[in-house]
Amino acid sequence: MAGRCAGKLALVTGAAQGLGRAHAKRLAEEGARVLCTDINGAGAEATAAEIVEELGAGHAYGIQHDVTNPDDWERVVEAADAELGGLNVLVNNAGIGVGGNIETCKFEDWKRCFSVNVDSIFHGCQKALPLMRQHAPGSIVNISSIAGLIASDTMPAYNSSKAAVWMLTKSIALHCAKNNMQIRCNSVHPTFVDTPILDGTARNHNLDKGVLMEKLARQIPLKFVGEPNDIANAVVYLASDESRFMTGAEMKLDGGISAM
């Protein structure tokens, strides 16, 4: 298939729903072969099945994956080699948010947030780079958040973990460049996006989803909440050779929030 990511071999974590599902589908639409992974294995397989239904057999595969487990990463990287024939795009999308301010946030929740949001990228890059080097040029895309650049008093664990993703990305980028791997690494920083996470937020605050969307939109200079493909289109750019001169950078997709 011709496309901006033709010939790319991609692994997308957290691909069962939301942003991960959008990333996987857009990469496949642009010619990549994709391994969809998620702790929800059935959801990852469902995303892959949608891609196969649209584009044909061999374009996508789904597999259960605990991104906090380094042994699971080894298994999944081996699956990428077996099913895709290699790996040269890694999209570290899996992530969670936890509530509580510095006085109320439970340490167990803090540790879980870092395990899913940060440790997963450490394990993933460490396990995937040997295979990616064999299929360079390549690209690592780490999904951070605008909350990794702009703080809030109500989410210290999430703020800190996503800031760690931002800086870890730069360290990985410099390591790959110094060793002439031809593998780039960049981070993406979205603000509010209309995914199932917002459905849960509406329920937790006893709000109608439409009311919540209006409240969030008022905080964004462009006055609307993002759609998953607004972020996935950026991932396509970073995965493609169009961004071959971009590494160690942060792409802010925040409707102008960080400009204020």
Automatic annotation (TrEMBL):
Coiled coil: none annotated. It comes from the Bacteria. Pfam families: adh_short_C2. The keyword Oxidoreductase applies. Keywords: Oxidoreductase. InterPro entries: NAD(P)-bd_dom_sf, Sc_DH/Rdtase_CS, SDR_fam. It is an enzyme of class 1 (oxidoreductase). One of its GO terms (molecular function) is glucose 1-dehydrogenase [NAD(P)+] activity. Its EC number is 1.1.1.47. Belongs to the short-chain dehydrogenases/reductases (SDR) family. NCBIfam families: PRK07069.1, PRK07231.1. This is Glucose 1-dehydrogenase.
